[in-house]
Amino acid sequence: MKPLKRYQYERYAILCNLAYPTTFNHTLYGFDKNGRHEITDRWGRTIIRVLWGERNEVVVVFKGSQSVWDWLINLAFFPKKIRSGERECHVHWGYYSLLEQHSKANTIKPNPHLSDAMNAEFMQASEKKLKQTALTLYEQIESVLLPLIQKGKRITFTGHSSGGAMAILVAHRLYQHQPAAIKRIVTFGQPATGFWNFKQHYPLATRTYRICCDLDIVTFLPPIPFMFWHVGKVLWLHNGKIYEDTPTMARLYRSIVSWLLRPITYHYMNKYIRNKDFFDKH
């Protein structure tokens, strides 16, 4: 498994952070002016952005929870049966349902300020967009990715929180018929996506990186031990270090101990040495 390089980590982290603002200039990050496609949820909010440029890589960014409804999805953890190759496995119903929803459809009306020819072109483009809303979110993603894959581009999926779970599910599903097209999956603060049988048969473990930061409680969800399991390689950012593949229970224990001992650790001399740069400003 290739290590995740620092510049890659920073790039995906920035893109995940930029998934939340309504607008941003994607060309500042190496993507083409027209290399952007946004997919909205049932309320018309952008939750998925597909970005591409001259590079061989397409980045699909999934936005995490934004509302009370989104957070309640985390609690819909009853099983959804899916196929992984020739086998059946179970995943989190709530995260799967996010990908099965349809975008909000808008009513198309002629624009009185346009000529007949321009209105015909406008209506044609609008009808095409309206037809897309009849597709599920996953089908919309696939309709954008397949032409790019045919051009030789490879896909990276990244997402924060529940967006990370969606990234895992979309990558797994796309792998079933486009296995060579997937470059990597990088998630941040992601809850577990599937049962043990999903972990066993997940084919992208060597291409999946799961970033956790200290005691991020969402990374321990759903709150049922030994029912849901994470996939891929975990990179745990804790106490200024990166730990690889630390078991979930060990991570929880060490985080709690670190939190309880924090008032004492601030007395250690290394804390004073680490903060020496503060004096350069005075």
UniProtKB/TrEMBL annotation:
Alphabetical list of InterPro entries matching this protein: AB_hydrolase_fold (IPR029058), Fungal_lipase-type (IPR002921), Sec_MonoDiacylglyc_Lipase (IPR051218)
Signal peptide: none
Fungal lipase-type domain boundaries: 59-224
Alphabetical list of Pfam families matching this protein: Lipase_3 (PF01764)
Entry protein name: Lipase
